[in-house]
Give the backbone structure.
Amino acid sequence: MQLNERIQSVMKERNMRQVDICKTTGIYSSQVAHIVTGRTKDPAISYLIKFATALDVSLDYLVGRDMTKIRYTDEYKQCINDAIDNMDEIGKRNLADQAEYQLERHQKV
């Protein structure tokens, strides 16, 4: 899936229009239209950051590096840390094993 297709997909899920992106990001409507339609193939990183924020997705998702849409806010990270702190030792070991497996898997790609 291309950048513009991911943007269009999230916009559809969030019931957003190009004008909503313009208002949220401050990017001119013509430039937003070029990015959304794929006419601009390699937009500036500053635009990508604004799009990711407006769409409430991670930058990695937007550019195709990760299929997880979630943005890891400080509040989200704290929830994860709290959950890990409350795990027993077996749960922590299983989580560490899974994380190690995932890292190895991504390094092979």
User: Anything to note?
Assistant: The chain has two domains: 3-62, 74-108. The chain has seven helices and no strands. The CA atoms of residues 3 and 63 lie 6 Å apart.
